[in-house]
Amino acid sequence: MTRALVVAAFDASKKVAPIRGELSKAEVVAYLLADALGIEILKEEAMRLGENATKDAIAAKDGAQKLKNVVSAKKAKLRQKATKDATIDLNPALEQLEKELDDDLRKHWRAPCTPAGLPDAKSKVVESRPRPKPKPAAAPATDNICPRARRILDMSESAEVATAVKAAFVVIFHTVRGTKESFFNEQLEVAELKYQHALRRLKQAYPEEFCGWGPKSAESMAAWAVDLGDRGFPVAAAQQAAKALGLSRREQPVCVPGCSCAGCA
Known about the structure:
The chain is an all-alpha fold. It folds into 2 domains: 3-124, no CATH class; 147-245, no CATH class. The chain has 10 helices and no strands.
């Protein structure tokens, strides 16, 4: 991780409005940084990581500004000398200073930076995290359901699917209540951020599924869950989320991409 990455996460966090009691500025920085690194952080880890990343980002910006100030001072002195000494070739000297500044800034931004609180794969915090228990081997299929369809049905009961489906319904809820543009809808912006994290964890758990599903796929996720319910395999998280948010049923079934079984054909 470099200083440039930490500063990029800090700058991006300014576009996300905090929610009192739910999401602080520091937590936004932490979640954005974790998303860029492709790692997962817990709620209790986000605050400490975000605060330290913010301090490192501000320090990195101050360091870059000091480098610029030093070069600006050198340019000013060089111009003063040039007014008194006509033998000084000003333009090449100024270009040399600019080149040195670019090199120094490049080294500055590429320097390693590891904010305190960043989870380590070998740390006790990561090792103590709950992990899904391995499911017993499924009995040989005796019906006509294709292996892929059976895989999808088993997957629909996983914690990753439940989290992603709930997050998708929350996105739809805030989309219905306000404008569809997250820039003008702070609650929608936070809901989309949480859905992106849930979708990323879902893809990590099932890399071969949900190919091509991006950050704006909340409606497709909800429709997929509804479609499973129509087939007789309801996703409990979808029913609970819809009931809690007061969302009404919409006829928009969506098949899981790539399924070629008789039921999906």
